[in-house]
Amino acid sequence: MSTVAVEVVYRGIFQKTLARNIVRSIVFAARKEGKIGTAFGRYGDSPERNGIPAKQFAVVADDAEELDEILSRYEPTEVDVTINVDDTMCKGVESWAWYGLQPINKLTKPNGTLIVTSRQDADSLIRDMHQKDSPIGLSIVKSTVSFSGLWVYKDDHTDVRILGALCSVCPQLVSIDSMLQAIQEQMGSETKVASAQKAYDNATVRLIEPGEGNPEVPYSFDLPGWKTMEEAVVIRGIKAGGGFRGGEGGYEPVRNSVFKKFSTRSMRPVINFETCIKCTLCWLQCPDTCFDVTPDGLYDANMESCCGCGVCEAVCPVPDCVTMVSEADFEDNNSQYEMWQKDKEGYNQWMTALVDKQKAETRTHGFHHVGGYAEEISEMTEA
User: Fold this and answer.
1) SS3 breakdown of the chain: % helix, strand, coil, rounded to 5?
2) Which fold has domain 4-208?
3) How far apart are the first and last CA of the chain?
4) Which of 19, 68, 212, 232 places its Cα 20 to 30 Å from the Cα of 331?
5) Strand 108-118 vs strand 291-293: parallel, antiparallel, or unpaired?
6) Are residues 169 and 137 in contact, defined by beta-carbon separation less than 8 angstroms?
7) Closest among 349, 347, 353, 317 to 335, alpha carbons compared
8) 311 within 8 A of 287, measured Cβ to Cβ
């Protein structure tokens, strides 16, 4: 069979429009060549909430019978191309605590390609990805993250640039000529056609060899089978918390051992413990109860529970006491408070450098002001 499957991994709600535009355009382009295809979302219910990784697929075949055969499954078990529209998800994705942490390249078939929108280099991205037993290609579309969401569409050409690169790295899907025709008909913009062509011309692939990348085994757990389920619906209560790290002082809540929310996060808070006034606002307002109260009355964010929403930064009354910085700057979920306790001078230097770097970056966690998207697009065009 010559069926070609593409998955788009995106952050729920924030990037839904972007993902939809990509998979729909693939199908429209395939029709130009007499092929048949379909585009569909992997999650369409409550799991597709703010920031939680979700998927959309495009499957293209030569005829309807072939397409029906591949779609008799719930979803493709492997894909020719994985498109990741937020580079922080290279660390792995957790959809809704169903399967554990899934490598971003889990469905990418041997010698398939992973396309990532990012300003990082290949080595940095590969360091985040989990290792595979077979080689795959990595193609980077140089871009900042695009929050083209359910209600707001950021028309920054990320979709068409990805489509142009896709035609280069996976020529058996559709030709660039067919894709350009589809873009012109669907979007009616010569500028977007030019952007897709430029991305096609500039696309490169870096081979990721077996064994390259993050060697950790992603956490997982067994789902209860229907034969082992208890009668009725049973929701076990979470135990009450206790002292900080098991001690007598402070407070640390007991958390859900199943849903670790860090794959939802594109940014994380960095805390300046020196300027904290112990006002309790971050602890009280955090929607995911991710702050632990330390024995000395400070607040340590648990990075396995933090979803990166930015509420703590918004409610903190002290400038730069809580600063959201890019998740790409981290390789672990270690305690910042413990780091500060061990080496306060070193921690403060590290923290200051991260905050200064973030202030020079354009990355945000999706918050914006009226006219902000237009300003960003203007800056990108000039760059």
Assistant:
1) 35, 20, 50
2) Pyruvate-ferredoxin Oxidoreductase; domain 3 (3.40.920)
3) 44
4) 19
5) unpaired
6) yes
7) 347
8) yes
Structure tokens at 299: 């607040």
In the chain, where are the structural domains located?
4-208, 244-359
- Judge whether 125 and 90 are in contact, CB under 8 Å: yes
Per-residue pLDDT tens digits for 194-241: 999 999 999 999 999 999 999 999 988 877 777 877 778 777 788 889
Q: What letter represents residue 237's amino acid?
A: G
Sequence letter at residue 374: A
233 CB burial (10 A radius; 0-12, 13-18, 19+): exposed
* 285: its two tokens: 């307002």
Coil, strand or helix: which one is 220?
coil
Assess if CATH 3.30.70 describes domain 244-359: yes
For the stretch 303-361, pLDDT in tens is: 999 988 889 999 999 999 999 999 999 999 999 999 999 999 999 999 999 999 988 87
Q: Tokens 């929403």 identify what position?
A: 309
Q: What is the DSSP string of 234-252?
A: --PPPPP-BSGGGSSSSBB
Place of tokens 């971003």: 104
| C-beta of residue 28 within 8 angstroms of C-beta of residue 58 | no
The Cα–Cα gap between 346 and 137 comes to 38
